[in-house]
Amino acid sequence: MSESLSFELKGNRIIVSDDAQAIKNVFVANQEVNYKRYKNRIEINLDQNDYFLDEEIRFFDKRKELIKYDHVHKLDVDVWEQNVLVINSLNGNMTYSRIPEELLDETKYARVLNLNELAKKQNKIIIPSEIDFNYKGQQINARISVEQNKFLNIVLDEAVGIAVLILKKRKSSEFHIVESDNLEIKQKVKYRFNISSFLQDELENSGNGRWDLFLLVSNNNIDWKLKKVYFSDDLPILNQERYIHLFRQDNPTNFNYKGFQLYLTKNRNFALSKDTMGNLIKERYQINPVIENYQKNKNTFKLVINVNNLSTSNFKFTPVIIQRNPDEFNERILDIQIDQKNTSKLIVSTQVVKLNLIALYWDMYLKIQLDGEQFYLRVAKATENVKYKISQQPIRQQIAINNDIFYPYLTKRGSLSFVFRHRESFENTKNYFIEHVAYWYVKFFGSHLQKKQIWIGYEKMAQSAHDSGYHFFNYVYQNKLKDDYYYVIDKTSPEYHFLADKKERVLPYMSFKYFVYLFAADTLISSDTRRNAYNLLQRQTPMGRVIANKKLVYLQHGVNGIKKVKDFYKSAGQFDLVMAPSEWEKKHLAINEWGFDDNEVVATGLPRWDVMENQQSEINFKQIFVMPTWRNWMAGMPDDLFKQSEFYLEYQAFLNNPRLKDLLKANNARIAFFMHPKFKDYIHLFDIDTTIIDAYEFLEVPMDEMIMKSSLMISDYSSVLWEMFYLKKPTIFYQFDQEKYLTYEGSSLDFTTELFGDVTFSATETIDKIVEYINNDFQEKDEFASMREKYFNLMDKNNSKRVYQAILAKQNLIHSQTKLGMPARQAINLFIKRKIPYLKKVWRRLF
Questions:
Q1: What is the 8-class DSSP label of residue 567?
Q2: Confidence band of 158 (pLDDT split at 50, 70, 90)
Q3: Residue 35: what pLDDT?
Q4: Which of 461, 522, 596, 785 has CB 3.0 to 4.6 Å from 453, enough for a Cys bridge?
């Protein structure tokens, strides 16, 4: 029996043939498994999660006597000459099957090869499946040169047989294996390794890092030793000579692209470093630019940059600012002179108006020439004095240019950048004065407000009252659940009248009461981020700093997934308690992708869904809601460039298509064209045929009403599409720039299988789909309707109720640690003691 038994592995199936009829029971890892019996074989299906994990397989006959057993070593197997050869899952090389020694002679279903035999059969090096990096300080002396920007030529001081290059990432368990070009087992000292695959794979990852070089050496393909690659001679005198080679990208798509640098560490070991080319050059030549002074004088800004090796190198430094725009490269060269007393210092003095800037962010760089190529070095450091000026006196640093403003700011990493943008109407001396007075009022006398545990509600840029932020506030107000819950909205907002019956709970935007209560607030509750309650682009004022530390209950602006938003990740620190619209989003996005803990996310549904209903019957025509979403790469684009953009040209072609016009008129349908609020300055550029199209700016009409009255929605990547899907209405994803969008923004959904509507890539395709929906009376297709159960598990009118209950249950997550007020006697004594000097200090901080 045992001599004729044949055993084969295919995928997760074990196939036993020949005398398989004798088998009665099969055990895997001491658990009996089921099998299917065929005429000449049996097939055993193993669980995908458990199979082939070094488990014992045993076969018994009717008398419960053991027929045969084996161990399957790793996950994947291959059949070679009717014998099972087990593949090492780590690197794809074959290794041996661990069949017990006493059964080797009887085994007919798996041929056993020793390592040397297997190496000869496969012409491959058999690298150990596990590598122990506790190499006990063993090193191997070598010299390394680079050929063709991809080959490492390593010459050893001692001859070895086989050498395999191991690139081990620091502070990580990751490592890469690179085999040499010559696989022969013979004594030699020269090896060549092609690291192009490693370079390409790592450049596709966004992070930086360092990799140490090891050699795994063997004289017999069985016994291996790991040795760190070492340079035995003295290190070069000049620091830059420790750096051997810069691995450049062949066709970089970005001015600040990333590369690798091979270098000698100070311990004389070889290593690779990955970073931007500018940072690699800064490290190589020890260039460490520091901004030592910053001044603003009317319409001119002046700064002093100390470049510590300027006098000892041949580099010519050109200070520039570069627009932060992944779609287009824009730089502005700054006026420069060399400090005659200290030639390591660059003095920059530039009139802003001459730079001809466009919005929004501009970063500071030094441009240099090296080996005929141009590189950009980020100016990443500033003295404490400069940091104080920029962060503590932000309003004093602003330069006004007509209706625009230009000012410096420090990034999260402390690098100098600039903002050039339109000045909002509320950004004026009066409001900044009120803000500072309110700050000091709360600082001295705000302790009584802290005891109230004030809640503050608001929506996008404090301008609206139609999203979940308002609807939850309204629910709490109507049910008298919280007295100290206030809503922030601009008095000039078209939606201010929605709060006419709640005036005692309204905080008019930019009023003294608004500032006081927002400074003193315990918890923010909104469908938008914190800064929408104040100023999206001002972080360094008193409110800009205080609001960053307020606890936020995030009600969600909409269902997520279509767009990947890095700011929503827990590491970004934006949210403290997340209300998810469904269990699907809680699990797949908030927890698995964004990184929140289970207790920080509650599936409640969106409060605005409490009032969402189908209102198509309230209008006497079929409305098609068209709402393109914002593209970050178009921020601040001037009108002339906007009219040349793919976005503008596509929507012009769609909205002005003669076939579309005839189609809508013939079927009593109209388009409601609704622009994202960040597109508000461009809507006048579109040619709108008012006989078939109604064009609306942000807040001109309530968006939720548009959704409820519409029969079909056309957008690209907007989360508003989920609202139509929630109401069981059809959607079209008009994604003419899908490839660019996925490159720049990314998505948590697979656009080929997980979108709940038709996807189109041109105006013609989109109109074809409109025809389909007109012909079927705007009914949702079954293939998309069937997806609703996956995405939505809460379809009732209790969303606000669940949010309120969740907030009460999560009190430990939502209290801001704001220290307000001081004892009255302490405040009076401080005032008396400081008197006029103190008031002068306050005034300086104000302006």
A1: G
A2: confident
A3: 78
A4: 522
